[in-house]
Predict the 3D structure of the following.
Amino acid sequence: MTLAPVTLRIGQQERATLREQAQLAYPKECCGLLIGREEGADLVVTKVQPSVNQDPDGGARAFEVDPALILHWHRQLRGTPARIIGHYHSHPNEPARPSATDLERAWEPGMIWLILSVGRGKLTELGAFRYVEEGRGPATRRGFEPVELAEI
């Protein structure tokens, strides 16, 4: 269940937006979209688009990106080399790796999941992963693969 290796490249301005969103949302989860493009084997984040966390339970332990925002960006990016390459969300007081809830809610193979660990209101760690699926029906294997994260 391994795809070709990929590096997620993200700039200082985008990292600053992520840090601000994660810290402002604490102790709840922030979330949003990662918009970017492919450059060879790399995915380059060109925009971080925050979303209101629409999790029906209030966002304390899960996230849901606004579907209207996703639709808006699919329309905006049509005909361009850019696309939604993934999304991000924070894990208040938890590590920057996918949780059981993340795996339960994942459904788009190949999408990047950027997870921001926030402890005591401060961003402490970033983790990047790609959701993968193999097989069909009850035999489907699902999981996350780590993705290298690099600053540009």
Remarks:
- The chain has a mean pLDDT of 95.
- The chain has one domain: 7-151.
- The domain at 7-151 is CATH 3.40.140.10 (Cytidine Deaminase; domain 2).
